[in-house]
Amino acid sequence: MSGLSGSRAILLLAWVMVFSTDLVAAPEYKIEIKNHLFIPSVLEIPANTKVKLKIVNHDSTPEEFESYELNREKIVVGGGKITIFVGPLAPGEYPFFGEFNPRTAQGVVIAQ
User: Fold this and answer.
1) Which of 16, 45, 52, 105 is the most exposed place for a label (fewest CB within 10 A)?
2) What domains lie within the chain, and their CATH numbers?
3) Does residue 65 contact residue 98 with C-beta atoms inside 8 Å?
4) What are the contacts of 49-52 at 24+ separation with CB within 8 A?
């Protein structure tokens, strides 16, 4: 008997459909922290797409990336970096701020 039986082929196809989304890399965007500012302070990303945010802190002090709208809160140590996945997001604006420097460390993700 050569090839896959019908039920095995269906199982294989179902497995590929379920796990193939994990094999596709999410688009990656970088946000830097310098002098207690997020750079860029406005980040445009595609709507309805899961994305990877790499946040790099160039300051010697820690900062906390926080967003109520994105439901994210994570500390970035001085000189460190973190990765956060967001989305898929509906079109709109999603503000974020630095918990330790909220007056200066502010930004927004715009999904469009």
Assistant:
1) 16
2) 26-111 (2.60.40.420)
3) yes
4) 49/87, 49/88, 49/89, 50/26, 50/85, 50/86, 50/87, 50/88, 51/26, 51/27, 51/85, 51/86, 51/87, 52/25, 52/26, 52/27, 52/28, 52/83, 52/84, 52/85
Per-residue pLDDT in tens (0 to 9) along the chain, 112 residues: 456 666 676 766 665 555 555 557 899 999 999 999 999 999 999 999 999 999 999 999 999 999 999 999 999 999 999 999 999 999 999 999 999 999 999 999 999 9
pTM equals 0.77
Angle at 95 between CA 36 and CA 27, to 5 degrees: 90
